[in-house]
Amino acid sequence: MEETRRTLGLFSVLCVSLICINLSFSPVYAFYGRRQLRFNPDGRFKILQVSDMHYGNGKESQCADVSPAELSYCSDLNTTAFLQRTIASEKPDLIVFSGDNVYGICETKDAAKTMNMAFAPAIESGIPWVAILGNHDQESDMTRETLMKYIVTLPNTLSQVNPLDAWRYQIDGFGNYNLQIEGPFGSPLFLKSVLNLYLLDGGDYTKLDGFVYNYDWVKTSQQNWYEHTSKWLEFEYKRWPFPQNSTAAGLVYLHIPVPEFSLFNKSTEMTGVRQEKTCSPPINSGFFTKLVERGEVKGVFSGHDHINDFCGELHGINLCYAGGAGYHGYGKVGWARRARIVEAQLEKTIYGRWGAVDTIKTWKRLDDENHSLIDTQLLWSKNTIALVLYHNIDH
């Protein structure tokens, strides 16, 4: 009994020491007592991505691209109902709003009021949620900076205006930040981030001379911040205690798709559909190349192109559209609004405890009569990578 008490005491001291070390030295720690994200006791973590709500004035905002029979009653409230329905069905651990949350142009004159309505289902659910901006959010009475400064004040959000170390990089945009998802309690990795999310402000329209109404891109300053943050998280993942011999898996969320999304045109190359061209920046800033070089990111999740909802794999990275969730933004008659879910599952160690991320899966929920679940697919598997390496060494 005495030995058990001594062991528990030493374990408690170790835990407090590790927390102090993480708070003192990690430049990417950003929560300061706010609710930290971690995997569930069953080794799962589920993310609901909601893109392109284009919220306007609630019941006064008419739907776009729905059947004539729906026009008389369809409004922003249909978007709210869809989100409430999906949260209830999926019970996600995190909700990510990936831009064009509100529709300012010729619409709302009170962006704060509109955001309150748009994010209400997430706030009311009590589930942690985050948001980034699209190209339309700032087209009302708030700038991109004031939008993010307002969002971070809302209940249950883990959104950030920018990372704490943004001054080092003079980072462009507002809404660039990292979320670290730790292992479940009882896991050797409960003080390590086993899944890293990178949320980025892809801007709206470029201000450079010679470009007219062209979409913006991820800037060098943002890429430098990503690279530094990624390397630091790798260092923490590989250091004592319970050092890992690889990097933790990563996911990226941004509104405007990187140019590489345009490479997928055949149905055999993707899961899901392409129904419009990829509206990406006219300049390839090299962000995708940076992700390939780092090797940790398994998926990039975008919105912007409402009636594309496919995933395609390129150089080990899955490029995935969410599909439009909002009824006030454009869509396609007969093609249901939708949202994307991503679920990461941890592996079991030889000691029966939860270890690193083993698989990452995705599917979509439709706002149709059956609330259909479609296009379930395995995005990434640690075991698949291991088998490929084994095969190459053996041959």
UniProtKB/TrEMBL annotation:
GO terms for cellular component: cytoplasm. One of its GO terms (molecular function) is hydrolase activity, acting on ester bonds. Residues 45-307 form the Calcineurin-like phosphoesterase domain. This is Calcineurin-like phosphoesterase domain-containing protein. It comes from Arabis nemorensis.
